[in-house]
Structures are given as structure tokens and as C-alpha cells.
């Protein structure tokens, strides 16, 4: 290679080829689970209904509540979301094993206080937890959505508001 000195700096006359960094491929199971979570937190019931079948299970292990079937799950979500002003899930870590996707993160809620026995107030909660979603890639459906949330942290936050 030929180099020239310009104002005390070496400069290459030949520019090496730019090599692009390999793009990260998101596994199909995580992509489908991400689409589902986006519809859930956006409260897009039309999209959500396409993810559920009669066999889909929605489990809140901490609250010991299990719902089966898209109709029951959507009815439950609509009832809860009436009180919800804002809702998001910040994922700290996601991984998968086959069709099982595991998310570790924090659910953030802004809700009407009457859901928690505090009428006339707005409540803000940040609840850490683990959400697992078992997907069916062939039918693009959710088999099971399971939440394990830290309700002790939620109770502490409610007591402070």
C-alpha cells in the first residue's frame, strides 16, 4: 500500500472495503411473542383475538388465576383494561427454547385507583416479573401465556400512594 504524509498524519491512498457487521436474526418464536405482547400492551383486541384459540391458556401464577380460551381471556382483559390508562412491558432479557419464550422485565401500569380501592386517584405501578409465552409457529397462535409477577412489590407501591 502507498501512504502519503499530509500535515504530519499518515493517510492511506487505498481505502479498504467496508465490511458490514452481521445482522442479528431474531428467532421466529421471539418475533411471534413480541407481536403478541405488542398487541396486548396496545390493547388491540382485534389482533389479540387472532393469537388465541379455544385451547389457549392465560395463567397468572402469583394470583392463582387461569383462563382457557380466547373468548374468556379477551373478556377478562377488556374488564381489567377499563381501569388501565397506560400499560407497557419493559423487557430486560428475552430468550427461548424451541416454542417457549421467556421474558424477564417490568410491567408498568397507570390505572384508575378504584381498581385498587383508591377511587379518585391515579395509580402508577412498576411490577417486576417473568412472562413465559408458548407459541405455535405453524398456526401463529399463543398456546400459553403465563405471568409470575412480584405482587409484594405492587402492594408496597400501593401502600405508598
UniProtKB/TrEMBL annotation:
<dbReference type="InterPro" id="IPR037401">
    <property type="entry name" value="SnoaL-like"/>
</dbReference>
<dbReference type="Pfam" id="PF12680">
    <property type="entry name" value="SnoaL_2"/>
</dbReference>
<dbReference type="InterPro" id="IPR032710">
    <property type="entry name" value="NTF2-like_dom_sf"/>
</dbReference>
<protein>
    <submittedName>
        <fullName>Nuclear transport factor 2 family protein</fullName>
    </submittedName>
</protein>
<feature type="domain" description="SnoaL-like">
    <location>
        <begin position="34"/>
        <end position="135"/>
    </location>
</feature>
Amino acid at each position: 500500500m502507498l501512504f502519503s504524509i499530509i500535515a504530519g498524519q499518515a493517510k492511506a491512498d487505498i481505502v479498504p472495503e467496508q465490511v458490514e457487521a452481521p445482522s442479528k436474526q431474531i428467532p421466529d418464536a421471539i418475533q411471534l411473542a413480541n407481536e403478541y405482547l405488542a398487541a396486548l400492551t396496545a390493547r388491540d383486541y382485534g389482533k389479540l383475538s387472532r393469537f388465541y384459540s379455544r385451547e389457549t391458556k392465560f395463567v397468572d401464577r402469583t394470583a392463582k388465576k387461569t383462563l382457557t380460551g380466547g373468548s374468556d381471556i379477551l373478556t377478562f382483559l377488556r374488564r381489567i383494561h377499563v381501569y388501565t390508562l397506560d400499560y407497557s412491558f419493559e423487557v430486560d432479557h428475552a430468550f427461548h427454547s424451541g416454542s417457549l419464550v421467556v421474558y424477564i422485565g417490568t410491567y408498568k401500569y397507570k390505572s384508575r385507583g378504584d381498581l385498587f380501592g383508591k377511587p379518585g386517584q391515579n395509580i402508577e405501578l412498576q411490577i417486576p416479573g417473568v412472562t413465559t409465552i408458548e407459541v405455535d409457529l405453524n398456526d401463529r397462535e399463543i398456546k400459553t401465556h403465563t405471568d409470575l409477577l412480584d405482587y409484594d412489590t405492587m402492594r408496597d407501591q400501593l401502600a405508598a400512594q
